[in-house]
Amino acid sequence: MHSLVAESLVLCSTTNFDTSRLDAQKLRVRNLEYKTVRLAASPELLTECEREGLSWPRRAARLVRRMCEAEKPYIHPDERIVFTRTTPSVPPIYSPEQWKERTDGCTLHELGPISNICANWGNVLSQGLLERRRVALETRQRLTGDSEAIEFLDCAIETIDAVLDLAARYANEALRMGKSEVAEILERVPALPPRTFHEALQSLRLMHAVVWMGGHYHVGLGRIDQYLWPYLKEDLENHLLDIAGAEELLAEFFISLNKDSDLYPGVQQGDNGQTVMLGGQTQDGRDAVNELTHMAIRVALYTNMIDPKVNLRITENTELSLLTLATELTRRGLGFPQYSNDAVVIPALVANGYDPADAWNYTVAACWEFIIPGKGMEVVNIGAVSMPLAADQAIRAGLSAHETFESILKRTTENIGEQVRDLVKSYSRLLLPPAPYYSVLMDGCLEAGRDLSFGLKYNNYGIHGAASSSAADALAAVRSLVFIEKSVEPEELLHAMAANFEGYEALQDRLLHEAPKTGNDPEADELLVTLFDALADACDAVQDNGRGGRVRPGTGSAMYYVWLTRGKPGDCDDAPIGATADGRKKGEFFSANLAPSPQAQVRGPISVLQAFSRLNYRRICNGGPITMELSDSVFADPEGLEKCAMLVHIFAKLGCQQLQLNTVSLSTLLDAREHPERHRNLIVRVWGWSGYFCELGPEYQEHIIARHLYGD
Amino acid sequence: MQSGTIFDIREFTVHDGPGIRTTVFLKGCPLRCSWCQNPEGMSPIPEIMENPSGKRIVGKLYTSEQLSSILNRQASILSDNGGGVTFSGGEPLAQAAFLAEVMDSLGNLHVLLDTSGYAPESDFRRVVQRCDLVYFDLKLMDRKAHIRHTGVDNSPILRNLSVLASMDIPFVIRVPLIPGVTDTDENLAAIAKGVNRLSGLIRVDLLPYNRAAGGKYSALRKQFCPTYDERRPVHVDLDVFETAGVKVRVAGTVQK
C-alpha cells in the first residue's frame, strides 16, 4: 500500500495524463490476472505434421498459423491497445526422437529457435503485412523454378495470413464489445501501414507478440523513438493527439509487453530481451533525440516495470537534461537505462566490416550486444572465454617452469586463442531452424526467397571475454610481487594457491591489499588492455566463422561469471578454478562484465571509468557494459541526480563503450547480509558518512534494510 | 617530503561539496565526539578492522607526491564537472604540514576542507589559505557542554571561526543535530547568533542525526557510548536561522 502511494506521487511529476485507467491495467499485470484468460492447452501439431508429411519450414509456418488460430481474442473493457496471449505454451513440431535425429551431430544455439535478433520493425510497419505479402508473391512468380524458395515464400505467406486472420478476429471481438475505435484500427493494421501513432503501436503489439508464439525468444524492439516518431509527429502536427494522449498510448503499449512475459523462456524470469533503443544519431551524424525519446523515458518511469528494457545511445554532446531524466529511471533500481556511446560503438562496428549506414542504426540484442535491425542473423553469444582460466593456467605453468613474466603473458595469450578456437569449432555445425514469420520482418528474405536461417547481411558470432578484471588482477599480482618486488618466491605462491591460502594468510593479505587492482592502479589496467587485445587477435584470426561472418570479441560476462566460479547449474564438478593469484579463494566470485574484482576495494566510479576507457574498443564490438552499483543515497536529492547524469557524461567523454548503472536494492542488501563476501564494495551512506555495508554491525545493517523496506 | 595517514579515498562523493568530487579521509582526530560515525578516523595510526567479510588494515601512509599523483590523474575530470577534492577525516588539520604540501601539488583543482576547526591557529591559516571552500563544523556553543560531548574545549574552534571570517574564503557552517545535545533551542539560537554576521558565510547546513552512527565501532573493538538518547527524535529548526538572516538548509535528506 505504502509503495503504491509513494509511486503515485512520483507519477504526477513525470507524465501528463490521467493515469487511473492504466493504473488498473498495471495492477492487473502485477496480479497476474491475465493468466486467468489463458486456455487449458495449446494446439497439438505433431499429428497433422506427420499426417501431411510436412517439411521443417512448413511445420514452422504451421506452428505460427495454428497458434494464431488457437488464440481466443480477449479484450478488457478498458483497453485501447489489445492482444493478450491465451495459448499457454509453444507446442513441439517434432517428437523428441525426431528432434534428436534431426539435430544429431549439430550444435543448436541455446534452446534452438532463432533468438536474440531484432526485426526491421520500422520497415514492416511502414509497408504493412499486405505489402509484405505482395512482395512474397512477386518473388514467387520470379523464382518459379526454385522449389526451396517457393516453399519458403508459401510458408511466409501462410504466417502473414495467420496474423491477418488473428487481427480480423480481434476486430470482430472489439465490435461485439462495442469498442469501435479498436475495431476500426484492427481493420486497418497490421495489414496496411498505420495512419496514426495509435495504429502503429497496435500493429507493433500484434506483430511482435506473434514472434514469441512461433517459439522465438529474446525478441527485441529496436529504435522505437526513431521508427514510431513519424506517426507521432504527424498526429501532433495535425492535432489528432496531444502529448498527454500520446504518453497514455505509449504507456499502454509498454504495459502490454509485460502481460505475457511469464511465458517467455530465459535464464531468469525477466531475462526476455524485450529491449528498446532510444536516442543516438541520424545517418548523417545529427542528434536523433526527439520528443518521443523523452516521452519513452517518462513513460518507463510511470510504468516502472521490467519491460521494455531501456537502452539509451549517447555521445559526450548529449544534453544533460536528457541524462538527468534517464537517471531518474536508474534511481528506480530496475537496472536501466543502459547507455552506449555512439562515438565509440559506431566506429567499432565500421572497423569490423559494417556499412556506415547500418552501423549508425545499431540497437542491442537481449543484453548489450550491438546488432543491426533487420540485417543481422548474428549469434552474439556463442560462449565466453574464461579470462581467469587463461591467466591461471599460464601463471601456474610459467611459475613452475621459472619463466619470465613475459612468458606467462605469452602463455595467457595462447590460452585465450585456444579457447576462442574451441568455441568457434563447437559452433562449426550450428543448426539454425527455419523461421518463416521472423523472415517476413527482416530485410531481403521475401525479396530473395530465402529464410533468415540461411543468413542475412551480417552473420557474425560473438564471444564474451568473461571475468576479465579478475584475470588482470591475478597477472598484476604476479608481476608486482614475484617479478618486480621479488618479495614472493614462485614456489611460495604456487603452494599458497594449492592450499587455498590456508596457512598463507599473510601472503593472501598482501595479494589482496598490496597488489595492483583493475580500477585502482594503472599497472593492472594495462594488463586488462593486453587481455582484450589478445582476445581481439584470437577472434580476428578466425577469418570465417563458417557462416560467412567474423567472430566479434566482447567485454560482457553474462551468467558466465557465476558459472566459472560455481560450475554450470546441474554440473556437479568442483569449481573449475581454484584459488587465484589475486588472493581470491576457491569458490569466491569473479568480476562480472567490466567491473573491478569483487575482492578489490576501489576508490570509486571515476577511476573505474578511467580504467575501462583504456580498452581498444575499436576492436571490441560485441558489447558488454561497465557495470556499477550506486547507493540509493546518491539519488536522494536533485543535486545527486544531476551529478549522476554528469557521471554518465564522463563515461561518454572518456570514450568508454557501454555503461550499466544499478542502484542498491533491498534484495542486494539482504544478500549482502547473508553473504558479505560477495558485497565487499557495497557502500551505504548514512547521515554524513559512507560505510561499507558489510562492516556495519548487525543491528545497523538491520537499520539500513529497514530504511529500504519502509521508505524514508 | 611530508607523509600522511589516510583511511580512505572515495570518489563521487555527491554530498561532500559542489560538482563531481573525490574525498580524502585523513586519519587522526583530537576530538572524541560521542556521536562520531567514523571511529576509524580517531586514532592517527593504522589499525585493524575486523568484520564478517574479513580483516583489513585501515590507514595507509602516503607521501604527498603519491597522494597528489592519484588525485591529479583525474584532475581534469573533476574540474570539468564543477568539482574537485574534499579533505575530510578524522581531522585533516591534525596533519596540516602534509595537507598543505598535497594541496600545493594539486594545480588548479578546487579544494574543499571539511574541518572541526580544532587546530592551532597557524595550522588553520596555513591550510585554509590554500582552499577554495571550507565546511566548518559547529557543534556546541556552550564551552562546558562542548567539553562534555566532544572531549575538547571549543575556544580554539571559535577563534578559528573568526579567523576564517577574516580570510576571504567562502565557507559553510555544518551543524550535526544530535538529539538533546546540539538540537536544543538555546544551542541553535547561539549558533545562529554567532554566525549571522560572519563575512564569507554561504549558508548553514543542518545534518540530522541518524541512528546508524555507531555502526563501525564493533569492527574496531571499540565501545560506542553515546552521551544522549539515540531514540529521541531530532529537532530540526530552520526558523531560528532564517529569522537571524542566515541561509539554512537540511543537508541531503535525513539519511543523506
Mean pLDDT of chain A: 90
Spell out the CATH superfamily of chain B.
Answer: Aldolase class I
What percent strand of chain B?
25-35%
Main sheet strand line-up of chain A: 2-3-4-12-11
Low-confidence stretches of chain B: none
Could you tell me which chain pair has the largest interface and how many residues each side has?
Answer: A-B, 45 and 48 residues
Tell me the number of helical segments of chain A per DSSP (H or I, 4 or more residues long). Answer: 30
Count structural domains of chain B.
1
Q: Structural class, from secondary structure content of chain B?
A: alpha/beta
Gyration radius of chain B, rounded: 18 Å
Main sheet record of chain A: 5 strands, mixed
Q: What low-confidence regions of chain A span 5 or more consecutive residues with pLDDT below 50?
A: 1-12, 685-690
Mean pLDDT of chain B: 93
Distance between the termini of chain B: 37 Å
Q: What proportion of the residues of chain A is helical, as a percent range?
A: 40-55%
State the assembly state of the protein chains.
heterodimer
CATH class categorisation of chain B: Alpha Beta
Q: What's the end-to-end separation of chain A, in Å?
A: 15 Å
Structural class determined from secondary elements of chain A: alpha/beta
Which SSEs are present, and which pair or pack?
The complex is a heterodimer of chains A (712) and B (256).
Chain A: H1 2-14, H2 20-30, H3 46-51, H4 56-70, H5 96-103, E1 107-108, H6 121-127, H7 129-142, H8 147-176, H9 180-188, H10 197-213, H11 224-227, H12 229-237, H13 243-256, E2 275-279, H14 291-303, E3 309-314, H15 320-331, E4 338-341, H16 342-351, H17 356-359, E5 363-364, E6 370-371, E7 379-386, H18 387-400, H19 405-426, E8 430-431, H20 436-440, H21 445-448, E9 461-466, H22 468-484, H23 490-498, H24 505-513, H25 522-541, E10 551-554, H26 560-566, H27 605-612, E11 626-630, H28 638-653, E12 658-663, H29 666-674, E13 683-686, E14 689-692, H30 698-710
Parallel strand pairs in A: 1-8, 2-3, 3-4, 7-9, 9-10, 11-12
Antiparallel strand pairs in A: 4-12, 5-6, 13-14
Chain B: E1 3-11, E2 21-26, E3 47-51, E4 54-58, E5 60-63, H1 64-72, H2 75-80, E6 84-89, H3 96-104, E7 110-115, H4 121-128, E8 133-137, H5 143-150, H6 155-165, E9 171-177, H7 185-195, E10 201-208, H8 239-243, E11 248-250
Parallel strand pairs in B: 2-6, 6-7, 7-8, 8-9, 9-10, 10-11
Antiparallel strand pairs in B: 1-2, 1-5, 3-4
Helix pairs in contact in B: 1-3, 3-4, 4-6
